[in-house]
Amino acid sequence: MKDAQPRVTRLSEYRPPDFLVDTVDLRFELGDEFTLVHSRLALRRNTAAGAGNAPLLLNGQGLSLLSISIDGQALEASNFRYEEDLLEVPSVPERCLLETCVRIEPQKNTALEGLYRSRGMFCTQCEPEGFRRITFFPDRPDVLARFSTEIVAPREGFPVLLSHGNEAARGELPDGRHWVRWEDPFPKPSYLFALVAGDLVSLDDSFTTCSGRTVVLRIFVEPKDLDKCAFGMDALKQSMRWDEEVYGREYDLDIFMIVAVDDFNMGAMENKGLNVFNTSCVLAHPDITTDAGFLRIAGIVAHEYFHNWSGNRVTCRDWFQLSLKEGFTVFRDAQFSADTGASVVRRIENVALLRTAQFAEDGGPMAHPVRPDSYLEINNFYTLTVYEKGAELVRMIRELVGAEAFRRGSDLYFSRHDGQAVTTEDFVRAMEDASGRDLGQFRLWYTQAGTPQLLFRDEYDAADATYRLHVAQSCPPTPGQPQKDPMHVPVRLGLIGSSGELAFTDAGSAKATEHVLELRDAETTFVFTGIPERPVPSLLRGFSAPVKARFDYSSADLERLMRLDTDGFARWDAGQTLALRVLQSRMAGQGGADPDSGLQSAFRALLLDTSADPATVAQMLVLPAETYLGELAEIIDPLAIHAARQSERRALAHSLKAEFLDCYSRLTPEADYRVDPVQVGRRSLRNACAHYLSLLGDAQCRALLREQYHAARNMTDRLAALTALVQGDPDPQASGATALLQDFEARWRHEALALNLWFSVQAQRPHAGALEDVRALLGHRDFELRNPNRVRALIGAFCSGNAPGFHRADGAGYRFLGEQVKVLDPMNPQVAARLLAPLTRWRRHSPLHADGMRAVLESLRALPALSPDCFEVVNKSLAAPGG
Ligand code: B3K
Ligand code: ZN
């Protein structure tokens, strides 16, 4: 049983474990009715913890204890206690063998933490605290043990029995069951434990490591999915090679396995040698996977693989250190993705995610530092702040110390802490030791929440050819942190003259066209001499720091940056700033049927420029996201934001129809589909044009899009046409979208991942009436509340990606979310709590919306048995600001 009021866990109360576990031997007897878990722990008192003869305390949640013994002696009931998720044995020898047998019921586990069943197979998810739902254990990341795992199951239905490490033995039992024993030579924390049993087939391959060892690679799937593994396998091999070449990291076991599981709370999990993946993050085939899906899969395969070093070999001391492994690993996977092509576009995508979603988190009631100080439910802290902002922190360290010192720092970190459970402080110290740089002030990035703001202004003195750049930094208050100290911020800077970049020196360094300025004080002035003309500053190139930067650019300045800046990211950003202004003035009631003339000519130039990189042009045609516009507004009015963005897009489509059509028809699809940067770029631009054209709702464009849908030989083009007609066309009935939706459903009814796309397209039709569609789809024969992917595809997509539907003025969208969370919370608290995100920012909305959002949060707070996950989100959202 969980406590009525969840307990706060605080970093300041961290204490080393009283007991360590040298080895753990597990034996699972899997069954349909129940599963028996036999465990033998070799325990040793941790004298370094200095806790005298503290009792043995082991976590255990919802376990039926069948037997318990110490050193072969069964314990009397009076010698132990199992209450409130803790097993307490008051008196134990300094070293002992603790044996337990518990009974669990994986088939009833809908929370998908611990051991559960997904489409019949058995699988596990233990991070962060799922292992305690399997057996008794000090379920914390700083207890590292050597695991052996024996799995017993009926051969029928479960021919494949997997755990991690190397297979040590297998055999048959007379009753039709068989067993396999796995041994992992590397000590690891319980959160990395995994087990899988099912009727699976595998795609097999191998990889020869840099030292010449052969590693067997296997991707396990249901037989129907065997044709969807090749891309993931390729990504895996590329990741293995890349980690050797770029970080000097070699794989360490003889086998590396991936298993695809349909019911999964997150994307994937890096269990040692046995990664478990959400099917949506590993299965790929051009018929059912979009380009974006392929790229996401490659990134996630890489991410989980990279965890073998950044996470598994060197792990976290406690969950406050989560970003130690997640921020660093996101940084590594982003580097990998950038290295495999389209690096500027990848960076633009990352920044767009930060600005839309992470900034919102940083500005809301759940704001927390990259290294949080406290939590009620750790599952709520697998956030964009810990992951994405955490990655930005690593990126900034690299900016500050330089690529070579950074590599020395990572080498030092891995060798110094191999086999240990450490902290973000250890990471930063390794970087300092390897580079000789002082990152003292930089550490504030780990402890201060909120998005810093940089206000730039400049002055140019023509008489002495001097350019001055003034910067003032500040960071808004966040819950529990009313005041912030100035941060150490790397500002990558270029100066753009009337015909191109200018060379300049920074603090006596050699002349170059780019420097990384280091901001440390609340206010700073940088002085550059020998500057022959007034430059336009190209600030935060490559988005060198996760901040909101403001500079009063004129339209001509922005136009100059878009034309002459050599930094692709900065060119895109200049376009975004231009578009932002246009949308902001539309939100303020200006602008009519015509587009902004500056934006119109920028778009025209982009569409006509046949030498430009199509992928970048596609990004430049995307106006800033609604959530980013909201984030920058004083008061968020989601309907006004949507209307402004939509009317500007429509105006651009009308005035540039010929150019969009021209660009669209220039980019005819290639005969054979490949996921390479050139093809992906061409498709993305063509489909961006398709979406603008759909806004016109005219017969010619409709015909073109219907033709695209039918002629498509890949999901990217098919889905783009469908989405354009369903979401872009002002009249989806007349557009023929309804018939295409039926066609799509009939085609892909039996492909869960494709059907998820079908649910999402409808959930995101930007119209108040989409709520009724979504309600109807809840009753669809293939909708299943137990499957997180489906919940996210329908309910999640609607609530977080459909402003006109979710934020409709009668508040019905909010009440809908409340109802769904109420039903889902008892089943799967993690997924339920995540769905709540759009409600958490209610205070920033206009009263009409804020009242409706708050009312739903209050109705949830009144529920008698809210999970700790939802309890924390709801209560923090309703708490007085600054509290
Ligand atoms: N480490 C896992 C996340 C597990 C989350 C559990 N709530 C996936 C990843 O970041 O690689
Ligand atoms: Zn991760």
Helix content range of the residues, please?
A: 40-55%
Radius of gyration: 28 Å
- Ligand kinds: (3S)-3,7-diaminoheptanoic acid, zinc ion
Structural class by SSE content: alpha+beta
Shape: globular
Largest sheet: 8 strands, mixed
Distance between the termini: 29 Å
Overall pLDDT: 97
- The total strand number stands at 32
- Oligomeric state as shown: single chain
Segments where pLDDT lies below 50 for 5+ residues? Answer: none
Put simply, the count of helices is 29
Report the sheet-strand fraction.
15-25%
* Spatial arrangement of strands, main beta sheet: 6-5-9-3-2-12-15-14
Could you characterize what this model shows?
The chain has an 8-stranded mixed sheet, with no helix packed on it. A 5-stranded mixed sheet has the order 17-18-19-21-20, covered by helices on one side. A 4-stranded mixed sheet has the order 30-26-25-32, with no helix packed on it. The two termini are 29 Å apart. Helix 4 packs across helix 5 and helix 10 packs across helix 14. It is built from 29 helices and 32 strands. The chain is globular and about 90 Å long. Strand 7 and strand 8 form a beta hairpin. The protein has 883 residues and is an alpha+beta fold. The model has no long low-confidence stretch (mean pLDDT 97). The structure holds (3S)-3,7-diaminoheptanoic acid and zinc ion. Zinc ion binds next to helix 3.
